[in-house]
Amino acid sequence: MIEASGFLNILKPPGMSSHDVVSAVRRTLHIKRVGHAGTLDPAAAGVLPVAVGRAARLIEYLAMSDKSYRAEVLLGLATDSGDAMGSLTERMPDARMPSESRLKEVLAGFLGSIEQRPPKHSAIKIHGRKACDMARQDMEVEIPLRQVEIHRLELLASNGEERKFLLDVDCSKGTYIRSLCMDIGKALGIPAVLSFLLRRRVGDFTLSGACTLEELAEKGMEALLSPEQCLSHISRYELPEHRAKPFCNGLPTGEQRKEDLPSLLRVYSGEQFLGMGRYDALEKAVYPVKVYRESI
Question: Could you tell me which CATH class the domain 6-62+207-229 is placed in?
Answer without folding.
Answer: alpha beta
